[in-house]
Amino acid sequence: MARFPTWVVIALAGALSLSLAGCSSTGGKRAEDARKAAAAQGRAAVDTPRWTFAMITHSGDGDTFWDIVQSGAKQAAVKDNINFLYSHDAEAQQQAQLVDAAVDKKVDGIIVTLAKPDALKAAVARAEKAGIPVITVNSGSAQSKAYGALTHVGQDETVAGEAVGQELNERGKKKVLCVLHEQGNVGHEQRCAGVAKTFSGTVENLYVNGTNMPDVQATIGAKLQADQSVDAVVTLGAPYADTAVKARADAGSRAEVDTFDLNAKVAAELRDGTLGFAVDQQPYLQGYQAVDLLWLYKYNGDVLGGGRPVLTGPQIVTKDQAAALEEYTKRGTR
After folding, report:
1. Which residues sit opposite 109 in a β-bridge?
2. Rounded CA gap, 87 and 60, in Å?
3. Does the CA dihedral 22-28-32-37 come out positive or negative?
4. What whole-number distance in Å separates Cα of residue 86 and Cα of residue 37?
């Protein structure tokens, strides 16, 4: 009978033990309970120095998308023994000042969004000059490498838009309203341009004031009422999907409402047919991977992507998948 070194036997036994735990009815729950307990008690899985990482985003107040990003980032920070700092400002110049403030604090790593890249270029360069590694996340994939970032974590916005255009073609749509809620956001422009690239019908961009939901509802409603040929509305953020649904009702329109991004409300409305489909870019993963990749770089000099973005999307989510994902949206991880 063949004999194996002791370490091989131990490794195989460990792997078998993990496999059986994963296949048992309670293994998954135990793993989840352990994860929650570790997070609650702040236990790190590593003994590396307690580095400080700062994430600075272009989020406005009350945007639930960024709550999910933070959830992932904080979980990775617990695991990696990281002191995690989060700040945000929807105004690009103010966001740049927050990056400058993080540099002044001599943080060990910076994660930043580049929704309006020109305004952030100097601040990112200052971080690079100070020897602080930078990872871009969510927006700015086209500028990330040129600005000197280690890598970019997110979805390719043009590719995501193209996926939407193809999905709309399969649904037989003819005229689409693409609702942009933040003027000057290059990612939003890329999404709508991507839709137009692959959609065989007509795409019309509609700019709304995303900080004022009643105004968003009124603007979409007025457009739908004036043009009954619109048979699909695409919003670029989960909070705007339900507003578009209300606008559709106001206008007496039968247009399908679809959206970028996923949250608990969107998952529920996909399940009951109120929405047609959603494009998930996995914001939890964006936050988690950004922190984890910075830690890997600080600890081991690792860089992922090979000069290209680390993609977290797009994934088209329909009624068929909504029920399975709804549990995750309720706990704030999808």
Report:
1. 53
2. 11
3. negative
4. 23
Q: How far apart are CA 66 and CA 138, in angstroms?
A: 10
Contact in structure between 184 and 58 (CB atoms under 8 Å):
no
pLDDT of 61-77, one tens digit each? 878 899 999 999 999 99
CA distances from 53 to 22, 40, 74, 89, 295 (A): 33, 20, 11, 18, 9
In three-state secondary structure terms, 15 is: helix
* Residues 91-118, mean pLDDT to the nearest whole number: 97
* CA nearest to 292, candidates 304, 306, 282, 283: 304
User: Is the model's pLDDT at 125 over the cut of 50?
Assistant: yes
Q: Cα torsion for 39, 45, 49, 50, to the nearest 10°?
A: 0
Across the range 250-275, mean pLDDT stands at 96
pTM for the structure as a whole: 0.81
Which residues neighbour 281 within 8 Å (Cβ) at sequence distance 6 or greater? Answer: 138, 154, 155, 160, 260, 261, 312, 313, 314, 315
Max CA separation in the chain (angstroms): 81
Query: pLDDT-derived band of residue 137, with 50, 70 and 90 as boundaries?
Result: very high
What confidence score (pLDDT) does residue 32 get? 52
At 12-46, the pLDDT tens digits run 334 334 333 443 344 444 445 445 544 445 689 99
Give the whole-angstrom CA distance, residue 84 versus residue 42. Answer: 12
DSSP string, 113-169: --SSHHHHHHHHHHHHHTT--EEEESS-HHHHTTTT-S-EEE--HHHHHHHHHHHHH
Q: Distance (Å, rounded) from C-alpha 295 to C-alpha 19?
A: 28
CA 65/CA 214 separation, integer angstroms: 20
Q: How far, CA to CA in Å, does 142 sit from each of 117, 130, 148?
A: 9, 23, 12
CA angle 269, 197, 177 (to 5 degrees): 40
Q: Which amino acid is at 301?
A: G
Residues 107 and 52 sit within 8 Å (Cβ to Cβ): yes
Question: Average per-residue pLDDT in the chain?
Answer: 89
CA dihedral 213, 219, 220, 223 (to 10 degrees): 180
* Mean pLDDT, range 93-113, rounded to an integer: 98
